[in-house]
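Data deposition worksheet. Section B asks for the primary sequence of the deposited chain exactly as it was used as input, without tags or linkers unless they were present during the calculation. Section C holds the resulting structure in token form. Section D is free text for depositor observations; keep each observation to a single sentence. Incomplete worksheets are returned to the depositor.
Section A, Depositor: J.P.
Section B:
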Amino acid sequence: VQVVVESGGGLVQPGGSLRLSCEASGFTLSTSIMSWHRQVPGKGRELIAYVTSSGLTTEYADSVEGRFTISRDLASNTFYLQMNDVKTEDTGVYYCKAARPAGGVIWGQGTQVTVSS
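Section C:
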């Protein structure tokens, strides 16, 4: 079974940092395009950042460029989102997604991030 499981969400103050993890099983990260998405109530999921299967290309949404960083640990098969200098508008449910080479898509269950003082 191919699954991804997010963790690391929680409450953080504005200007603080948080690291989200996405642990994959049943497949390897190097065979998928991995991405983080954010959803707030009443809106669709917004693409935050992604990395290609080769790991050579990463892209970020303008809203997080320079503050968030994605990375992969192939040894542990875990995908990360490092969130620095967070803002109240970063609040939302964060989802990890794997786009498989055969066309399938795997979504995690999401992890809540709340930025508030």
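Section D:
The chain is about 0% helix and 50% strand.
The CA atoms of residues 42 and 101 lie 31 Å apart.
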